[in-house]
Design goal:
By secondary structure, the chain is mostly helical. The protein has a three-stranded antiparallel β-sheet with strand order 1-2-3, with no helix packed on it.
Length: 210
């Protein structure tokens, strides 16, 4: 019921503050990733694994140089590229640990493209600013194979996926630094609920209750 015109102290129901709709953290599921990789050629798989296993931003992969790959130390360096007049966002240069799967794939790629300075160059050897086109090509192939995807297919989702997968085996401060975030609150916004962990927890959390 609406308040009377002279009643200044009451709120109508419609004036009550509404709860803000919670943002859905959009990451790739394991099924989606495997569907993409199943239809990828070697170059496409290189790109997908590089985004997924480093959590790098789009342009950080665009300007990734072979000198950034430290095979012996199992590290990937994200740093400014003065030769391309490009700087890391917010000067967030960093070192990302790389595991064997990614390093083995990159080593194989380097042998296939021995004359390339960039890891993912365009046809002229320069920075490829259209990596999303490569991903969409893979996406189209996967859909044609009857795969389905929940939400938009884009490169930034790999960062969210990296964050959500890494947090299960690390801590928030470390994941935040690996992503190159200035504050942890930004990283929190990248984390998606882990359904697999939720199911596992549900099966064990209430065992003591008879």
């Amino acid at each position: 019921m609406n308040a009377a015109p002279d009643d200044k102290g009451l709120l109508d129901w419609s004036d009550m503050p509404r709860e803000k709709e919670k943002e859905v953290i959009n990451k790739y599921s394991e099924e989606e990733l495997n569907a993409l990789l199943a239809v990828s050629d070697e170059d496409e798989a290189d790109l997908i694994h590089s985004f997924l296993r480093t959590g790098c931003r789009d342009e950080e992969i665009v300007y990734l140089h072979w000198t950034d790959i430290k095979f012996a130390r199992q590290e990937i360096k994200v740093s400014d590229k003065p030769q391309f007049d490009w700087k890391v966002k917010d000067r967030e240069s960093r070192i990302i640990p790389a595991e064997d799967v990614l390093l083995k794939r990159l080593a194989s790629r380097k042998k296939r493209y021995p004359d390339s300075q960039l890891v993912f160059p365009n046809s002229l050897g320069g920075p490829d600013h259209h990596l999303i086109r490569r991903l969409r090509k893979v996406f189209t192939k996967a859909v044609q194979k009857s795969s389905s995807f929940d939400g938009e297919v884009n490169l930034h989702r790999f960062r969210r996926t990296y964050a959500s997968m890494m947090i299960a085996h690390s801590d928030l401060q470390t994941v935040s630094e690996l992503l190159g975030h200035e504050d942890i609150e930004t990283t929190v916004g990248y984390l998606a609920p882990d359904r697999t962990k939720a199911i596992r927890a549900t099966k064990s959390a209430f065992k003591a209750i008879k």
